[in-house]
Amino acid sequence: MMQFGLNHMTAPRLNARDLLAMAAGLGCVGVEFRNDLDGPLFQGEAPEDIGAAARAANLRILALAEVKAFNVEPAAQLTDTLALMQTAVACGAEGIALIPFVADAQSPRADQRHTLRAALEVLLPPLEDHGLIGLIEPLGFANSTLRFKADVVSVLDDMNRPACLGLVHDTFHHHLAGEDTVHADVTALVHVSGVTDPAPTADQMTDAHRVLVDAGDRLGNLDQLQTLRAAGYDGAVSFEAFAPEIHQMTRPADALARSKEFITSHLARWAA
């Protein structure tokens, strides 16, 4: 049975407690909270209180997002990163999201691997000290400074795959990067969103195109999820939609329930 999660970006108008309530009502296993929405994280509530509310709802806090541009001068932003780690520990989050910088121009893949390794060497000790997973999420945009999951896996292999580091498979970014291979054995979290607008090509797609997954999806979400499952991934699949029309929905739980049913019913049919 697929485990679903809910990223706060999908329903940013909800406060933290309402997000927990909606996630519980949808039968999700956990949520991801974000520090890049309007207002302070948890709307200023103490992280310990939000953690207690999550546990009371039988929900995990899958991650706090995000350390932005984590692969650019990581030592210079270590104070802010440590503060996020401390908040994650206080609320009982399992990890923190590590998001790469998107530059003005493309960078060689060798450079991307080098900067990733340098950043992880800075972040590894505090992640281990705090008992957290660093969730590395490559972005498939052409100018991303960490575009390919294969490069993340290569670096993790060189580092003997530290237990405190994991990969995020984002179905949108997987499509944009043109990757074929999934890496289920190092994947710690999956993000799902769909693109139904027929106009943009892959290199024209932006976060604003990211809606919930339905029959009009162009990203191959069902194929990606089936491939991940067949390769052994059994972790959370978290809804992460950025499109303004999703954010403006007055009944987001209904739309999420429909998308959840669409995904589960089709994957069950394939597995039968």
Automatic annotation (TrEMBL):
UniProt cross-references to SUPFAM superfamilies, sorted A to Z: Xylose isomerase-like
Spans through the membrane: none
Domain Xylose isomerase-like TIM barrel: 21-263
InterPro entries in the cross-refs: IolE/XylAMocC-like, Xyl_isomerase-like_sf, Xyl_isomerase-like_TIM-brl
Name of this protein: TIM barrel protein
